[in-house]
Amino acid sequence: MRWKLAVSRKVGCKIMSTEKKVELLVFSSQLEQLSWVSALENLLEHNKSSQVYIVGGALRNALLGITKKSFDMDLLVDPKSDSKLVAEQLSKSLHCSYFELDAERATFRITLENAQIDINGIRGQELMDDLFLRDFSVDALCLPLDNFIKILHRGETRMPVLNYFQGIEDLRLRKIRIHNPSSFKDDPLRLLRAYRLAGEIEGFIDEFTIEQITTDRELLFRVSGERIRDEWMKILAFPDSSSWLQLMDKSSLLSIVFPFLENFRPMDEAYTNDLQVRKHTLETLQYLEQIILRIRKHDFPHSPKLLQLLDQSFSPERSNEVLLKLASLLHDIGKPDTLSIENERLRFFHHEENGAEKALLYLKDLKLSNKETEFIEHLILEHMRPHQLSNAEEVSDRAKYRFFRDLSEEGPFLLLLALADAYATKRIPMGTLTQYEAFVSDMLDYGFKENLKQVTPLMDGNGVMNLLGIEPSPQVGHILASLLEAQHLNRVSNRKEAEEFILQWLKNPDDPFSL
Question: Does residue 44 surpass a pLDDT of 80?
Answer without folding.
Answer: yes
